[in-house]
Amino acid sequence: MIDIPTSAETQALEKLDLRVGQIMTPNPLTIDLNSDVEKAARGMEKCDCGCCLVESRGKVVGIITERDIVRRVAAKGSSLRKTTVKSIMSSPIVVIPPDATIEEALKTMADYKIKRLAVVDGKGLQGIISITDIAKALAEKTGYASSLLNALARESRPPEGLYV
Question: Which of 20, 67, 83, 125 is most buried by a 10 A CB count?
């Protein structure tokens, strides 16, 4: 669960003056609404990302994450090829403008209990921002002073020899 920043944390975030557009990932992976889940999984693997934004007629209508694939398809024994993205995506999608503050992004994530936001402006989809993107940016700005931010911002690698 994401905690809403305290007033002291909010003041610290405001001093950093980071905007969503500065730290978002531009050109996120997108997939058509009617594609199969296997195609989405292959796209995530190829792009080394944990989600796909789902499009219909050029508009973002949902999101599918690795967790969705595991819980809504694999754990039920369903076929990745026979399951459509549309059937497991989360919709409607929660969006934020690129000029929003990091504080606004964190509050939105906490309010909706989500870890990613599509970044959209009048021209359409601009990117995606995740809780990890925010942790990395804050860790860099603060010189990795917080061990929690440092832990969240680290690249995750499985321990060697643990999985054979």
Answer: 20
